[in-house]
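Researcher: We're teaching a course module on how sequence relates to structure. For the next exercise, students receive a sequence and then see the predicted structure as tokens, so they can try to spot secondary structure elements on their own. Here is the exercise chain.
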Amino acid sequence: MRILHISSPLTWRGGEQQLAYLIDELRERGIDQEVLCADGSAVESFCRNNKVTCYTFNKNILQIVSASIINEICVNDNISLIHTHDAHSHSAAVLSSMIFGNSTPIIVSRRTNFPICTNWFSKVKYNHSSVSRIVCVSEKIKEQVSKSINEKSKIVTVYSGIDLMRFKNNNVDALRLSSFGDNLTHPFIGNIAALTEEKDFFTFVNTADVYFKSTHQGTFFIIGDGPYRSQIESYISKKGLKDKIIFTGFQQNIAGIMKQLDCLLFTSHSEGLGTTILDAMACRIPVVATRTGGIPEIVINGYTGLLAPVKNADILARCLIKITRDHFYRRMLVRSANAHVYNFTKQKMALQTLDIYHQVLYERSLASVPVLQPSLLSF
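Model: And here is the predicted structure for the students to work with:
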């Protein structure tokens, strides 16, 4: 078995981390893998640093060129399966089948909770015969995807996983949140995410505003960077919270930073699953999150964390106050969440994905067996 993973983003976010975990786990199990990614991308750097066979393409070229490259790799390297990890990769892989006759079966990973587009090509690429499985990272995404797929049996759920071992280190080299000011007060409440529209940091700011109307204790941290940073900074200034909400920028040692928080406040209005929440659970940090996408599949309200409606700063603030003031309740949530997180490991994710690979190849082998005509069996 030889897998070709395809990834088009230049940056490193949750999907790229899941790809890295999958490559590492499958390599330990002796699976041959290659990667096709964007030239100059973070995934290319990962492959070079970890001695993973890697091909690159220019993101500025037409997808038909990428499709040709995919077909060439599949033929020359005897690829058994293509696994696409984002929408652009999915498109290019299907085009390699439609235009160049590439017969390699395609596995599609679907991580976003947005509806599938209704344009002609989106309908075609999700229902194309070359697509053998659509792997969703939550049941909510599976439900969303199923609305656009004719053959429902192709859709499966494999939850994203995390590396529990990275939270067992002391992480002494991590950025110290206390270094951002001389008079910072606990609880430290933070969110670790890219500053994008769907992460809804405006609700994070609104929640802080409501929270500080009930107490003067606490500091909020926005840990990450992204296209919405300037807008969020302006909004914080407008609310008069510049001394209460701190930007740390993008950080590498997330495990070390997470352990310094007293609560994770996750305010997304759309989320496939939310692996940052799993990280918090592994670090024994309580979670307050919005009830959207796959989040309720990992945050069981009142048991592994607290949930609030999307964009509802009042309820989110009440949840924060309950967790930070009721220490017994906090310990109960943390204990339950830490046990629950063992259902979402990178090892489990990789084994379930490998099982899907075997299923698809088995189905392909059955399809290639010739059907004997009754006349050939008569004497």
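Model: If you want an answer key for the exercise: The chain has a mean pLDDT of 93. The first strand starts at residue 2 and ends at 7.
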